[in-house]
Specification:
The chain is of the alpha+beta class. It contains 3 helices and 9 strands; from the N terminus they run E-E-H-E-H-E-E-H-E-E-E-E. The chain has 2 domains: about 60 residues, Ribosomal protein L9, N-terminal domain (Ribosomal Protein L9, domain 1, 3-Layer(aba) Sandwich); about 70 residues, Roll (Ribosomal Protein L9, domain 2). The protein is elongated, with a radius of gyration of 22 Å.
Length: about 150
């Protein structure tokens, strides 16, 4: 049975695709939960044209995201904080502060996209990953300096 997926389903397909699945899986799981719509011979042309529009939109988004990833990879930010005499911070640098510093540079990312491997508690230069998509994860240099 052919179905048009309304959202991404792991190990099945991506939103906007027309896929073939078993009739029981479609009628008992995908369609009742609103994950898919049954494709008949009458409405197949409509969903095929919709698929082409979605593919074009995804392509444009991927282009913009890859340009943003390249911009982030070549960018470095500096955060000024108060330090102890031994070079340690009063507190630590978190995802929100890095996201705000990027916003000042004109790059808007959510704080949950900023991934810090090890907490930043001393002055120095650190590598932080910005997760834009599952494939695009540019690395950003964060320099922590004293005020």
């Amino acid at each position: 049975m052919k179905v048009f997926l309304k959202q991404d389903i792991e190990r099945v397909g991506m939103a906007g695709e027309i896929i073939g699945v078993s009739e029981g899986y479609a009628r008992n799981f995908l369609i009742p939960r609103g994950f898919a719509i049954a494709v008949t011979s009458e409405n197949e042309a409509f969903y095929t044209s919709r698929l082409k529009k979605l593919e074009h939109r995804k392509e444009v988004i991927e282009n913009k995201t890859s340009m943003l990833a390249e911009k982030i990879a070549h960018l470095g930010i500096t955060i000024h904080r108060k330090l102890h005499d031994d070079g340690k911070l009063y507190g630590s640098i978190n995802q929100t502060e890095i996201a705000e510093a990027l916003a000042k540079q004109g790059i808007n990312v959510a704080k949950n996209q900023v991934q810090i491997e090890k907490s930043i508690k001393e002055k120095g230069t650190y590598s932080v990953t910005i997760k834009l998509t599952s494939r695009l994860q540019p690395s950003l240099k964060v320099h922590v300096a004293s005020e």
